[in-house]
Amino acid sequence: MKIIPRVEPCDMERPPEPTPDLSTFTVGLLMGGRSSEREVSLESARGVGAALRGELRGAHASRLPAGVLEIEIALDGRWIVDGVRLEPEAALAQLERVDIFFICLHGGDGEDGTLQGFLDRAGRRYTGSGARASALCMDKHAMRSIAQSVGVRVADGLCVAASEWSASKSSVLARIRALGDLGWVLKPRHGGSSVATFVVHDAHELESAAERVLATGDDLLAEARIAGVELSCGVLGSSDGLAIALTPIEIRPDDGRFFDYQQKYSASGARELCPPERVDASMCARVRELTLRAHRVAGWAGYSRTDFIVPSDGGEPVMLEVNTLPGMTSRSLLPQEAAVHGIDYTELCLRIAGYALARAHA
Fold first, then answer.
1. C-alpha Rg value of the chain to the nearest Å
2. 14 with 137, same domain?
3. Active-site residue, 337 included
């Protein structure tokens, strides 16, 4: 992990609520799933499981859950409970002892509201946002619109369905080229971890990149490339006024790269600096303000993370995308931000689980 240590004090208060006591509760870790982010999910779950079982450093022994169960969602959608593959409804019936489901899934039907809706219908508690907010977050095109409605800037962009691409490819390419002159970012409308995301600098490469995105079976979202400093800002707390934005973290990929899958998760990937090095305190404050605005208008709950570019020309921060289930691996950004506020990894996991007990889902 290539994190540049910083010693400056944070300029935001630590979340005021005490770390919850989960000693009378059983937590079920939901992991795996069918999305392209399956391996990241499994790694997140390993970290969360180690924290909630007390395998990491920290003075949390008296507040740890009474039990931690691991439930893997297989590629066929069935749940693996105690080594047995079951349909989700049957699995849930076998898991009555679980008080809180800690969702460690990323992308696909583990993050897009499908799983959340299933658990809602069963009356079960789970971490993160509810079905509606989860579905909104996974739809990058819809989230762009709702962010703009509350004054959060997004890059110029357009969304293209496969049918439109097939019918008028040359027209679509012309519209993409017209978005900007610094290059273009092409990505699936849904998904995460920068899977099937391409930063294109040469107009002659647009067609190939668009074809590769559409090959995923998703719509194509094309945006103008914005040159600047990439920041990510996490939120802890419910979607009401108690939520706070953490100190943003600066993401500095290797030269010539963007924050793609390798740069996110490889030990030799991007450098991450918290607090940021190339962005001043006033801009960090603005990013936190915009992050909270997006978090609240979308109805997210528990925790979230929003990514921005601070333009080189000094303009308003540009929102890139949002995550209702941020990664919890050793390379993930939210745990790094929380640590700057004095919240260690175990405490972060306890807080996230505690939010599920403290409020109803959106």
1. 20
2. yes
3. no
